Amino acid sequence: MQRIITIERFIIEREHEIPGATGEFSKLLTDIALAAKIVWREVSKAGLVDIIGSTGKVNISGDVVQKLDEFANEIFINVMQKGGHLCVMASEESKGLIEIPEELAKGKYVLVFDPLDGSSNIDVNVSIGSIFGIFRRVTPGGRGTEEDVLQPGRNLVAAGYVVYGSSTILVYTTGNGVHGFTLDPSIGEFLLSHENIRIPKKGDIYSVNEGYYERWDENMKKLVNYLKAEDKATGRPYKLRYVGTLVADFHRTLLYGGIFMYPGDSKNPEGKLRLIYEAAPLAYVVEKAGGRASNGFQNILDIKPTSLHQRTPLFIGSEEDVKLVEKFLQGKA
Ligand code: AHG
Ligand code: MN
Ligand code: MN
Ligand code: MN
């Protein structure tokens, strides 16, 4: 029987592992767990209250904004804004920087987040999630600026995600192992359930929206046809699993191994996923679990963002599978 330990207790016990961390960092992580619990509370009763459906608005990325997108965004902003640990925040659901009140903007951290991932799945009761990343500020003081947000994923000091699914799990890393906490609704606590998650070096599942096959370039088509071909010696065909919620597809990939892919295509050369709020935080998690994330040519963590909502193709999962993808996409297979 695994030791019963709450995420708050675990964060405090592990605080000494983070260079230069002060109680501030632990409080920041604890606040994120609180925001996740409040989003869970609304997600778990969506359909009973007027929280499903669309707001009729479109966000800066061109996504139709669901009511829960907006609600989750407001929860994260309200919970995180007044803690005094942040100098600036940025969200997939907010066009510009989310400013911290001047008198509170003395924090040395930066929070980037996707408050509600997989929002097209909300109304049909399929798993959805939240994604977050934490940077140290790079500007000297006062309110944070875009420069504090436009950092490569390599600079992250923590990242993680929540899957609101059959059970609700929060997975995060501060660089020393990747740990999962499952919400026990009866006591409202995230309890340690997956200590030190390691992704298998190779998997047998691929995850991509094959509906866009005709838009892919020849190398991408060759790759997926290779994964589907019968060849017992190399463990093929791979199984196909695609939820359509990044955090759900990623969480399965992290635990079972394999590869999640959201490639660029003829209609969207940079794909659909956002570098800052989706790709970089999950790339940080997967690398700390022994996996890899790439845009097909470069490690996701080495890409320096130039704009708040820029997209990137994303290939993420088991190290051997991502390297195989890179070989195909670079025409070397
Ligand atoms: P979000 O709801 O935050 O906008 O993210 C949706 C993303 C991601 O969750 C998922 O992998 C992808 O949309 C699915 O896109 P397709 O429907 O084009 O496959
Ligand atoms: Mn969206
Ligand atoms: Mn998303
Ligand atoms: Mn989202």
Automatic annotation (TrEMBL):
Mg(2+) 1 binds at E92, D114, L116. This is Fructose-1,6-bisphosphatase class 1. One of its GO terms (cellular component) is cytosol. Its cofactor is Mg(2+). Substrate binds at D117, G118, S119, S120, N209, Y242, K272. GO terms for biological process: fructose 1,6-bisphosphate metabolic process; fructose 6-phosphate metabolic process; fructose metabolic process; gluconeogenesis; sucrose biosynthetic process. One of its GO terms (molecular function) is fructose 1,6-bisphosphate 1-phosphatase activity. Pathway: Carbohydrate biosynthesis; Calvin cycle. Binds 2 magnesium ions per subunit. The keyword Amino-acid biosynthesis does not apply. Residues 199-329 form the Fructose-1-6-bisphosphatase class 1 C-terminal domain. The keyword Magnesium applies. Mg(2+) 2 binds at D114, D117, E278. Keywords: Carbohydrate metabolism, Cytoplasm, Hydrolase, Magnesium, Metal-binding. Pfam families: FBPase, FBPase_C. Residues 5-195 form the Fructose-1-6-bisphosphatase class I N-terminal domain. Homotetramer.
